[in-house]
Amino acid sequence: MGKHSAGKGRGGDDAHARRQAIIDGLLADALRPAFHRPPSHDALPPDIRKAIDQLLAKAEAQRRRCLTYDDLEEALPPRDVSAEDLEAIFWILAEHGIEVEDGEV
Fold it and tell me: What pTM was computed for the model?
């Protein structure tokens, strides 16, 4: 547990607020049809691929098809993550039948 909670202090509330704003925007955009496909897993930056792999492993280990935003936050790299990177994460999770939800799962 200490490993995952250590990332919360890096970047502070500002990084979390920026990520949440991006996530909120992506959720709003999800209601509109998508005309492009985000890059494949292999085309993503290494730290984003690692985050996706961690999220997929967590969902598989828990034998669940949903994760929380806290799970997402813990897996994201400590740098600012672009909207495109988050879109790719959500897209790949969705391809695996995994949803990200508020609260505990």
Answer: 0.62
Query: Roughly what angle, to the nearest 10 degrees, separates helices 46-62 and 83-95?
Result: 30
CA-nearest of 78, 103, 102, 100 to 89 is: 100
Instruction: Return all residues near 80 (Cβ < 8 A) that are at least 6 apart.
Output: 11, 15, 18
Q: How far apart are CA 105 and CA 89, in angstroms?
A: 19
- Residue 57 CA: distances (Å) to CA of 12, 30, 63, 64, 102: 26, 25, 10, 10, 19
Residue numbers in the chain where pLDDT is lower than 50? 1-7
